[in-house]
Write the structure tokens for this entry.
Amino acid sequence: MSSAADGGILEAYIIKEVNPIMFLSRYISKREGFTLIELLIVVAIIGIIAAIAIPNLLDAMDRSRQKASMAELRSGIGTAIEEYKIDNSGRAPSSANFAGLITDLEAEGYLDDPPPTDAWDNAYVYAVTANQRSYTASSSGKDGGAGAWAGGVMSEGSRDWDCDIFFANNRLRFGTCS
């Protein structure tokens, strides 16, 4: 049994005992902001992620431009030229340049919405042989520099965006890469 005096000591002991919730709340409320080390770690992680993501993003953008130029050459311009050849005894349009080709194809009704430039904003190039049996429509690629047809069949996995893209006689091909 405890006396009144013992009860007073026990109460005093309970009051002085440390409450963990109050201790933590006081510690958390006194702490303001992050330490320099924590901030440096976060900045380093963001830098690593950016170093990985930005080159991949740029590569994907160039790949999409190459595919868009290939699609325009094959589906838009190439199809219109081939339809023209079918209707004109196998002869391609005799235009001296790409602007003339577009004018001829639009006037004849083979092309409704011609692309003014390739996906890199470079002008397309058109050439036809003297007998009009063979033609070439091309994009000069990312660098905009004209190259020559290397003669190979188009490699779909190419990662050199400077390679010229040729649509010659109903086939896509890569040209020289600068």
